[in-house]
Amino acid sequence: MIPFIEARSIRLVFKSKNRDAVTALQDFGLEVARGEFVSIVGPSGCGKSTFLNILLGLVRPDSGELRLNNTPIAGPGQERAMVFQEFGLLPWRTVQANVELGLELKHVAASTRAERSAELIKLVGLNGFEQHYPHELSGGMKQRVGLARALATEPEVLLMDEPFAALDAQTRDLMQSELLQIWERTGKTVLFVTHSIEEAAYLSDRVIVMTARPGRMKDIIPIGLPRPRDYEMRLTPEFNDIKSKIWEVLKEELTVIK
Amino acid sequence: MKISDYYAAHQRGVLGFLSLIFLLAGWEILLTYVVPLDPFFFTKPSLIAAAFAEQIAGQKLWHDLAVSSRAFIWGFSLALVAGIPLGAVMGWRRRVEYTLDPFLTALYASPLVALAPLLIVFLGVGLLGKAVLVFLLSVFPFIFNTAAGVKSVDSLLINVIRSFGGKERDLYLKVILPSTVPYIVAGTRLAIGRGLVGIIVGEFFAASEGIGFAIQNYGDTYRLPDMFVGIIILSVIAVLLTEILRKLETTLAPWRSGEEVR
pTM of the entire structure? Predict the structure, then answer.
């Protein structure tokens, strides 16, 4: 496999004045191929979200190597975009203006922005809601805006930090299926952090299990299930086997208290 | 049928209007038929209305209003211009906040109108003394509300802007400013109330013109109906300004209304 995203021996320590330093990530690394859908699961506080922020370029690791398409990552860049757990929509902007945010920050012309946002709003199924404000939308719709905004800048890598964790179960199932369709259509490389084994197994090509803090790579579990996947697939014994396999690995970390 | 429909649709306005009518009618009846009217101590709506008509027709009321407005506008504008930047810095830089907070809080909590005699001694009975008093009273809501607004900026939104390669300037214009606007509008509403107190108290202490002086003067000379005219005009102005601000708030920040602090 030719790695598209490559992280090696990442170490990050949170230092704070009043508390002991906390090692969030220790010798963490991974490789993701272009167009791959990889999920990261791990116990709370294992540093999986922190790792996404490092990849995004918002947090600088204390040491380690980070490459995207063989170029070192130093700060935010157009090839990467994040979908945030709490959506991160600007409440004073309409759906359309929110989707256009990234383009605006890159000084894309207004007419191109409008064209691009219209296209993406349609892709995530929000047509008719262009002029609505976030507070008028449901959680699922808000995250559709978040997804459209991330896709608007045409990134190669989509970083998703527990994007569906704040949604109710049914909306979540629906959003997962739609994400898969969009992924299949756009061919983005996706790095997806989640707490849910089921979600990871359903969406991913591979699932990375992290250890409890300090976060290290524990295991990589390939999901050999055929695509396109549908909801019924979740009811098959093969799917359950994979879920229990991930659970077996993760379980050990949940009982370790450090 | 038609009346009940109208009532259902406008219950709030109808009840409010009726209660006002009943109050005025009760007051009028009480002092006309029940209690003998001693014009030195009591007055009634019909007399106030007559005084009102007379004052509106005359020159003095308009002159007093102009004098008071000038001092109010000066003090209030300066408070706005000084308070918002100071509050923004306080909200953004923790050290500035820690340094200034003790005495700003003390000043805000104290009844600053107690300073009025001192200010009049220093600055005289004219425009300056009154404007300074208005400034002192109304600057704090601007400072504290702006600071609270800046502090409440969601750090997630800051990260969103940064993740798309936004610069420092983008943070200010696209996140910090818009999320602070509702707080500033709410602060303005508080500042109006306090500023009006400033102008009136300033004119109570020492002045020869202005609406506050007029109220004081009519009171001293037992012209109660005329005094009430001044009081009513003040309430109307206060209500109008507050309502305009409320409208402005929903226009500027349709996504939510700002919180008033302290």
Answer: 0.78
DSSP A166-201: TS-HHHHHHHHHHHHHHHHHH--EEEEE-S-HHHHH
A70 and A6 housed in the same domain: yes
Residue A159: inside a domain: no
Instruction: Mark whether A239 and A208 lie in a shared domain.
Output: yes
ipTM of the complex: 0.91
The answer, for B155 touching chain A at a CB cutoff of 8 Å, is no
Q: Which of A127, A154, A181 is the last residue of a domain?
A: A154
Work out the minimum CA distance from A245 to partner chain B, whole angstroms.
35
Distance CA B41, CA B256 (A): 48
Task: Give the total number of structural domains in chain A.
Answer: 2
CB-count exposure of residue A127 (10 Å: 0-12, 13-18, 19+): exposed
Mutate to test the interface with A, among B153, B161, B164 (most CBs of A within 10 A): B164
Instruction: Flag whether residue B156 sits within 8 Å of chain A, measured between CB atoms.
Output: yes
Question: CATH number for the domain including A187?
Answer: 3.40.50.300
Taking CA–CA distances from B175, the nearest residue in chain A reads: A90
- By the 10 Å C-beta count (0-12 exposed, 13-18 middle, 19+ buried), B64 is classed as buried
* CATH class for the domain made up of B45-252: mainly alpha
User: What's the rounded Cα separation, in Å, for the pair B210 and B219?
Assistant: 14
In angstroms, the separation between the Cα of residue B251 and the nearest Cα of chain A is 11
Please say which residue of A154, A176, A208 terminates a domain: A154
Q: Give B-chain residues touching A56 at CB under 8 angstroms.
A: 163
Measure CB to CB from residue A91 to each of B159, B166, B255 and give the nearest one: B255
In this structure, are A54 and A173 located in the same domain?
Answer: yes
Delimit the domains of chain B by residue range: 1-35, 45-252
- Render pLDDT for A33-59 as a digit per residue (tens, 0 to 9): 999 999 999 998 888 999 999 999 999
> Which domain range does residue A124 map to?
86-154
**How confident is the model at residue B262, as a pLDDT?**
42
The answer to whether A106 faces chain B, any CB pair under 8 Å, is yes
What secondary structure letter does DSSP report for A221?
A: E
Residue A28: which residues within 8 A CB-CB, separation 6 or more? A7, A9, A10, A11, A47, A51, A64, A210, A215, A216, A217
User: What pLDDT, on a 0 to 100 scale, did the predictor assign at position A245?
Assistant: 95
Of B162, B166, B255, the CB nearest to A135: B255
CB contact under 8 A, B164 and A88: no
The neighbouring-strand residues paired with B31 are none
